[in-house]
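User: I'll paste a sequence; please echo it back and then give the predicted structure.

Assistant: Echoing your sequence first, then the prediction.
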Amino acid sequence: MLKPEDDFATWLMILQTTTDSIPDFSQFIPDIERLINSITETDELPDPLKEYKQEFINRLSSDVIRKFLNLNSLPIQQLDILFDFLKILINFARYGFKSNNIHVIYLCQVLVSNTEYILYKSNHGFNFHNKICNFAKECGFYDEGNEFLSTFPSSVDLIYWTFSALHFILKTIKEPEEEDNNHPNINNNNNTHPLVLILNHPKKVVKIWDLFKIQSNYLIFTSFVRFHSNFCEKNVY
């Protein structure tokens, strides 16, 4: 079987053609996991693939995850294989906090932010979305994301994608009675919510507002505010 070190472009092309067949794709998982481990351990792909690091990360999202999320009903054995692979990606997403890499963080955010993907709806009995959110909490993505936000990253995109992922994870794993109008209650000693950690001081609220204004990224700021409009309205303006 062709290895990525043999011909990376051809390897990627063949990989892309297998995403509609979990048994075929499963043959690529060991190499994908090996490349991911190389990045998390050394911050690079192994020689001679170092120049392809960001392309590899981008393809995991565009050519792999996106196609999986559009799959229809699958046998339970294939769902188990797919879920185990997605757990590898969620674990990898934790590296995004260490490296300030938005594209790596996005690997988890895209999985947790929508319950309406065809894969989730067509395999309702597998409870895909809930399992993914719970694993993101169990593996440390949620806690490490909270810690990352508490350092106040300088990039608007890093704040937005991290906050978005943590918001949906918490919203999924919390019991309904712990929520108020579909938003976690920030006044009930719930100090695990990312909003509490990043906006726990008035000066940080002002700093967030200034950051969004400086970078003129009002579209992302509007999306950020949409999650907790009442809180931001009282503390930012």
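DSSP finds 15 helices and two strands in the chain. The first strand starts at residue 179 and ends at 180.
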